[in-house]
Amino acid sequence: MGVSAEDTLNGRRILLCVGGGIAAYKALEVVRRLRRAGAQVQVAMTAGAQHFVAPLSFQALSGLPVRTSLWDDAAEAAMGHIELARWADQVLIAPATADLLAKLTHGFAEDLVTTLCLATTAPIAVAPAMNHCMWRHPATQANIALLRQRGVQVIGPDVGLLAEGESGPGRLSEPEAIVTAISGGMVPMTGGDLTGIRIIITAGPTYEDIDPVRYLGNRSSGKMGFALAESAIRRGAEVVLISGPVHLPTPEKAVRMDVRSAAQMRKEVFAAMPADIFIGAAAVADYTPRSIVPHKIKKNASEGDNLKLELIRTPDILAEVAQREDIGLKLVVGFAAETNDVADYAKRKLASKRLDLIVANHVGITGQGFEGDDNAATAYWPGGERDFAAGPKARLADDLINLILERLHA
Ligand code: C5P
To answer: Distance between CA 264 and CA 261 in Å, rounded?
Structure first.
């Protein structure tokens, strides 16, 4: 199942830089799909890429001469490399090898592709492809984190069988997914790298009733949890979405349970177990009234002008899930919405709740966090962290699902 990319790139000028990996042959299909979506495509290849695919193949599909060298007089005379870098309104590197990512991170400009990437002011998207050990290497991960921080869009990689016969993260995303991702759309299912994985996600606020008409709530919209559910489902996961009161449609194929209070959410979470992954994206109330008054509280219910509400702690669902070793969860992910000292609180929660991963965001910033469509975040895990630049929650969700997959296989 995929999202049609037909005409979504009408008139866009895409510079496709092809790196030297076996996945270079898949870039041919990327060109075909980009053109079908209405884009003009100029292809530049590294020396390595030309060992895998002949420039002529790209030329036939793009309809334009392929650039292979900084030192090609004829090509430079037709369109200089700086001109080419300016021509592009989107740069896509596919496949992006570990070497190319490292060069990009450190600003190398030693050949045509690296020079174009440094000279362009257009947004850059990279679709990495490499051996899974190379992908997991701290050097590659640090490079990717820095590129993300600079706003580079990272598409994939997928998890699965690699060219050398081993399995793991490192497969180039499917061409359809790459094209849809740079069209600004949702990434379609990428070959089901989460097939067979059951994920329970909590989302939205909880409402803690005071009396039949009043409650204690919070401003969570549920968008982040729902976007995570959508992203995971597109990649083949089975998702149970346990949601507090929100105004959002149910993602296709999600099993949705609607709840109101923290206590109800806890009950549904344990009823939905077992699972492989638990993601606590809900903004669960920390306190609830000791008891619900069965009738509407009147203004004169207590002495004087003040009313005292006695609140008690709610169960910490996430912490309880994380400490239950009998459930067989492979990964427990929490969220930390903070208004200040975000990193500090998040790291403390990671340790105190014994989580595998925590995603922290700053909810004081306008347009980000609870109610907005955009979000920026930093994820922490024991021994590592990764920043995610501000962007639509759907994009962040895709990036977080990638990270969750990486941590699952770490
Ligand atoms: O401690 P704090 O409430 O800030 O932690 C936030 C994380 O804990 C979120 O992932 C939230 O879903 C989870 N949580 C929970 N049950 C609670 C409170 C928070 O699952 N009662």
So the answer is: 5
